[in-house]
Predict the 3D structure of the following.
Amino acid sequence: MPTILPTDRPIFYTVHGADVLISDMTQVGDLTGVNDALDVVSDADENAYLGALAPLTDRFPPLPDSGWLERAAVYQYSDKAVMVRQAHERTARDPADALALFWCQADVTDAEDSKARV
């Protein structure tokens, strides 16, 4: 059985299968077990995690226009994955303009541009 066991920082994960899509975060000191029949995407780095979720983006629910959003929840917004950085009441702001509230999946071209500027 695959396991998620953080040692120094929480690990974000998405477990997925034909009819299963579960995203959450395992805290340091906790252990998450995953059924062998399911696939897992996980990473402690938020950007790497969101990048690895790119092939699954269309499986996530759309970001709601209103309501309470829990930390580490993943949504689809403008054909990209966004993850809630801190629990909050949804505002009308675009997630890319509210980076204190969301992590946003970067465009590949954005990542390449940032490497070129370094």
